[in-house]
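name: query_chain
kind: protein
chains: 1
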Amino acid sequence: MLIEHLGKAPTVDPSARIAPTAVLCGDVTVGANASIGFGCVLTAESGPVRVGDNCVVMDTAVLRGVRGHLLAVGDNVLIGPRAYLSGCTVADNVFIATGVSVFNGAVIGPRATVRINGTVHIRTTLDDDAVVPIGWIAVGTPAKILPPSAHDEIWAVQKELDFPAYVFGADRPGPLGTIMPDVMPRYAGALQRHVDDRPLPG
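structure:
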């Protein structure tokens, strides 16, 4: 389904395949010979989404463009099922496996591989040809690639990346605090921009 959002409609190369249950919303561009699978969502929330030529976005993957960070995928990229990409840049010839998460401001270099359930954190740069093993986390620039058991080492880098401020414009709360009462009303309100979305014919 193609949906117009804030006056912008998806652009799909005639040679691309879009599964009938995929949703493309807003300023989304899909390149030549690309394939967008069943249940995928490509949504230009507050920034555009660009998918290059010969890309395969497998079933149920979600790609989101966000404020200040378009989502840009190069050519010859595979994005596995259940992957979640938000406001990141993916270079040519990258393999992103099942269940991978890639967050705002991340950059994945050419020919890199992120294996099953791997994570590339906000503001992280993954070098050319890098490999994130199954379930591991890449964090920082240049990226440290660490197992989930290395929580303290991951947090030492992640804390400085300041997820609350970078993604939500919120100050990090104290040890017993939460950003949720501040962030969620604003976030839910911003998503009201979809109220006037318009499904396109065809």
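note: The CA atoms of residues 57 and 79 lie 5 Å apart.
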